[in-house]
Amino acid sequence: LWAIGVVALTVGQLNIMTQMMAVILLGLGIDFAIHIISGFTEYRAGGLSIQNALEETFLKVGRGVLTGGFTTACAFYAMIISQSRGMREMGLTTGSGLLAVLFATFLILPVFLVYRERRRDKKQNKSDSVVVQKDLSFKSLGNSGTWLAKNYRTTLLISLILTGLLIWSASTITFDSNYMNIEPEGITSVVLQDTILDKFDLSTDYAMILSDNPKESRELAKAYRDLGTVAMVEDISTYLPSQEERAERLPYLMRIQKVMESTSVRNRFNRSELPGLKWEIDRLRMNIIEMQDMAFLGGQDKVDNKCRDLVGNPEDENPRDKVQDLYERLDQSRTADLSHLQRTLAPYLKQTVLRMANTDPIELEDLPETVLDRYANTDRSQFLVTVYPAGSVWQDADFLRQFVADIESVSERATGMPPVFLALIEVIGKDGRLAMMLTLVVVFALLWIDFRNPKHALMAMVPLTMGLAWMIGLMKLTGQQFTAMNVMGLPMILGIGIDDGVHIVHRWVAEGKGKIHLVFASTGKAILLTTLTTMLGFGSLIFSIWRGFGHLGAALFVGVAACFLTTILFLSGIIGWIEHKQK
């Protein structure tokens, strides 16, 4: 609740990235309470008073909780350097939210612990029952840590071999640039995009360029049509022929005019022309059906509805097809009726063709408002050029880069989904690397300040760096790819995964050498529980309808598990090696 209040004060709103903050904080924020409750109940079970148990908890556990909380928050804060607003706000809100949870834990949790223990003590005093001390630690983890430390050579050798294999696996992981693969599966809009690409050899994710006048628009359109990655170009020059185009078309227009002016309208319909009329009507029907399909795929509802009125709704069981009805009725029509149709429509058709064959130059002012509104702004000072790619900009990353490079080679003012998405991928990749490096530096500095010993700081970071390699390797082995969403999990896991190493090293330093069993039985229990709760928190994202959240959740699920395993293996071996040397 405090975290959401902090978001309201700092950012003021949630977006598609920051809305999963609650899931992240539920998975991570519970870790603080688990470590404190685990330590406190352990000391109470060991016979310490409430005050002494609480003091011992904060001395041996609380410092690690604070360090882990600050390092995790700093990992999220490192994302603030990103050029992407989504990443910036996610880093700010999640980092601030985590500190709010940390503060609330230290302020409120001890009060509830003391209150609970005092009530329990009162009940026991009234009943005069004998308190049986319980060992709440995980002995199996303690035994495992002791064995791994005792056989540190074998432990470190196996750990390094596994790390080498997983690094090799990580080196083969690929990046899925198909943005549609992070959208909900099977939604109509995504399926229709593939259909349009398959049937018409063009993508609906077009690029757009603004020009200052129709002449510049014509020049841009001509340059784009010559590119091999372009399927189609739309601009206002289609309705405004150039002087060269007018000169080329003028003989044809004049010939059409001459033919139509000399053509007389017959008053009677010749029955022998009926097959030709039927053929034309059938061709008209097929053209309307094709227009209907294109209008439906392109979202042109007005055209689609008009076509439905003529040839029926294809989704109906028995669609009413007016054109087909006309076709079938022609055989039963009387010659007199067809002659009446001839006298009515022929003059209209003649005048329409003559108007279309007008040889006067077409000016901007001659175009209807519907055309002007489609290609020009309200004051007609800027004109839109739309460029459709000849392939999928999502399924083929190389084609996306080539298409964007081609359109930007003609004009630097190109925009639209393809160049924006390519820029987003580059920004996320570059900023992700910078955030990771910044996180490593900040985390090491915080650990050095906390431990006052650079060796202990490096020791706590060993399972983190190895865990990152394991995470990517395990992602590859589990069939995952990097996407625009889950690459953000890499800087995030640096802050999340450091906690395990920090707690183990803190407890080991506090207890002194020879206490490996206690360290892993007690603190190991806490980091196992926090690992499981964090994995459940991120794992819940896998069931998200929007697959982008699922990709991020799956990556972090694997990453958290990897950091726990590397903590147990590497730190057991390193601590065993150090204590062996000290002997």
Describe this protein's structure.
By secondary structure, the chain is mainly α. The chain is 70% helix and 3% strand. The chain is built from 20 helices and four strands. The chain has helices at residues 2-10, 21-45, 50-77, 85-127, 139-150, 152-171, 188-200, 214-225, 243-262, 274-298, 301-311, 322-329, 335-356, 369-375, 397-410, 417-451, 454-477, 489-511, 516-539, 547-582, and strands at 207-211, 230-234, 383-389, 415-416. The protein has a four-stranded antiparallel sheet. Helix 2 runs antiparallel to helix 3 (50-77), helix 16 runs parallel beside helix 18 (489-511) and helix 19 packs antiparallel against helix 20. The mean pLDDT is 85.
Briefly summarize what is shown.
With 583 residues, the protein is mainly α. Helices cover 70% and strands 3% of the residues.
Give the helices and strands, then pairings.
Blueprint: H1 2-10, H2 21-45, H3 50-77, H4 85-127, H5 139-150, H6 152-171, H7 188-200, E1 207-211, H8 214-225, E2 230-234, H9 243-262, H10 274-298, H11 301-311, H12 322-329, H13 335-356, H14 369-375, E3 383-389, H15 397-410, E4 415-416, H16 417-451, H17 454-477, H18 489-511, H19 516-539, H20 547-582
Q: What gross morphology would you assign? A: elongated
User: Strand order of the main beta sheet, please?
Assistant: 2-3-1-4
Mean pLDDT: 85
Structural class: mainly alpha
* Model regions low in confidence, pLDDT < 50 over at least 5 residues: none
Number of helices: 20
**Whole-angstrom Rg:** 36 Å
The major β-sheet equals: 4 strands, antiparallel
Q: How widely separated are the two ends?
A: 51 Å
Strand-residue fraction? under 5%
**SSE arrangement, N to C:** HHHHHHHEHEHHHHHHEHEHHHHH
How many runs of DSSP E, i.e. beta strands? 4
- Proportion in helices: over 70%
